[in-house]
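quick one, 156 residues, struct below
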Amino acid sequence: MSDLVADQSCRQDVLLPFIGEEITRVSFDYAVSLLFLNGIELRIEAPFSIYDADAVVTVDPEGEPLLAGVALRLSRRVVQDAAVTVTGVLEIAVSGDLVVRVPPSKKYESWDMSGPHGVMVVSIPGGELAVWSDVSWRKKWHFGRATRRLMARSSF
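---
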């Protein structure tokens, strides 16, 4: 993971089944949505940052659509690592040395992740997470090696 969460503990109970997956689509409405090769969709509804070696760019999904276009840099990249901190920050490291950082919102859901077999994780106001999953989905769904390691540590 990047140095951004080096001083914060990461939650061990959150399965992020897009580690090792390619981002196949980036789409925009009043959120920025990332679709992964394995069918998982991550929808970011609050302002978030994209870090690279030279700069930090803040994207507001409800702001000017042309300004959110910087998120297109995430398309066709592979997720190398991801974590949710104990304070509710979602952080995703992708190929090309880019890091996406989504802080929690005090009033709104900042992000949600959904996919096949009833899997859903929602960052609710304040940074807590609401999780829905059908336990049988793990047996039916193929993940990359990094995700299987996370599943072994996951409690759900």
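Residues 3-137 form one domain.
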